[in-house]
Amino acid sequence: MRVALTTVVLVAIGVILVMMVAEMPEFGAGKPASNEVSAHYVKNAVKETGASNFIAAIILDYRAYDTLGEVIVLFAGIAAVLVVLDVHKGGRGR
Amino acid sequence: MQSVVLQTVIKLLLPFIQVYGLYIIFHGHISPGGGFAGGAVMAASFVLFAMSYGVGEGFKRLPRLIAQWLESLGGLIYIALGLTGILRGAAFLTNVPEWLGQAGQLFSAGLIPLLTTAIGLKVCSTIVTLLYHLLEEGHYDSQTD
Amino acid sequence: MIAKLISNMHFLTAMVLFLIGFHTMLTHSNLIKKVMGMNIMETGIFLFFISVGYVRGGSSPIAVPGAEGYINPLPSALILTGIVVSVSLTAFALALIVKLYNYYGTVDADKIMQLRGGEE
Fold first, then answer.
1. What is the SS3 assignment for B86?
2. How far apart are the first and last CA of chain B?
3. Are B95 and A82 in contact (CB < 8 Å)?
4. Which residue of A75, A93, B29, C105 is surrounded by the most CB atoms within 10 Å?
5. What pLDDT is recorded for position A74?
6. Could you give the number of structural domains in chain C?
7. Does A90 score more than 60 pLDDT?
């Protein structure tokens, strides 16, 4: 019963998604996504940052603040896991 | 999961995995990779060792206190390197392109290799801590602390 | 339309992966299989987002002397953050499943709901 209902709903969602893929721009044309921001990054990355890897230049120089947020997400994740797993049972200073 | 085949293979393979991980971290600005992928490969070497020799051996090689300190140091080094930008008078996390060397070599690109190393340390110690505690299954052994 | 779907096959694969992950997450009652379904869904989303940035005739985004054009590096850089968030989420979900198993003795979602329904 649950499997049948799930399959019907997912087939409906799947038909909508496949019709969306048929309406999307051509793969490889780069039309809406490659605008002047990416062109600026690709043209000026080696001069302005000195790194040959464009992606490293983007995540560590142009958008370094987002990488700081990601470091914080990693820290918060591991802190939450250590609290839930309760690793220091009867630990120091109790 | 301790068998002789696994232990022998891991003992032979571990230095190559760690050198590969360090290569990916240090060459983050001239070839694909960077901090996250290199940190994951380094962590994989520690976790493979712990899975085949037992978690007690794993904790002897990387004690809990050192793993906690490495993780906090990774984040603090990132923030400290960002604050050098404020000390110079520019914005937070500003890069100095010509500080280490020319573009295309190993020593180049200012702050970027240092930030990559900090991120690699943090990701490695996060994954190692997580998987050691999941492998330990609640048998907290206070002798390995 | 079939020709358009075949030329956009990366997007189609991403959508198929998303639907497979969603079906796995909804149908199985084992909690670890639900976490696996969430990971498959996230793989589909990452594939969709990265393949938006492909430019025909471009090479990979490392500055070598003889390349003509490069692909768009911006979606790949944004997905790196997404992958890290996905790893943190999986870690926390697995830690919660360990605590649930210690308390209830089973990882089956239906049995846990029955036990909770019998307790209250």
1. helix
2. 23
3. no
4. B29
5. 93
6. 1
7. no
CATH (domain of C72): 1.10.287.3510
State which residues form the domain around C69.
Answer: 2-116
Question: Is there a contact between C63 and A45 if contact means CB atoms under 8 Å apart?
Answer: yes
Contact list, A41 vs chain B (CB under 8 Å): none
Q: Which residue has the tokens 């080696």?
A: A46
Average pLDDT over residues B22-26: 94
Contact A60, B111 (CB under 8 A): yes
A neighbour chains, 3+ CB pairs within 8 Å: B, C
For residue A42, CA distances in Å to B94, B100, B105, C18, C51 come to: 19, 22, 19, 31, 18
CB contact under 8 A, C91 and B130: yes
What does the alpha-carbon distance between residue B81 and residue A20 come to, in Å, rounded to a whole number? 45
More confident residue, B119 or A30: B119
Total residue count of chain A as it appears in this document: 94
Could you say which of C54, C76, C77 has the minimum Cβ distance to residue A27?
C54
Q: Tell me chain A's radius of gyration from C-alpha atoms.
A: 23
Task: Kindly report which listed range (A63-77, A80-94, B36-50) carries the lowest average pLDDT score.
Answer: A80-94
**B31, B103, B123 member nearest A50 (Cβ):** B103
Selecting from A27, A30, A34 the residue whose C-beta is nearest the C-beta of C11 gives: A27
A85-93, long-range: CB within 8 Å, 24+ apart, which pairs?
A85/B133, A85/B134, A85/C95, A85/C98, A85/C99, A87/B133, A87/B136, A87/B140, A88/B140, A89/B140
| B134 vs C contacts (CB less than 8 Å) | 94-95, 98
What mean pLDDT comes out for the span C102-107? 91
pTM (two decimals): 0.88
In angstroms, the CA C76 to CA C94 distance is 27
Record: contact B129-A57, CB cut-off 8 A: no
**Angle of CA points B12, B59, B131, to nearest 5°:** 85
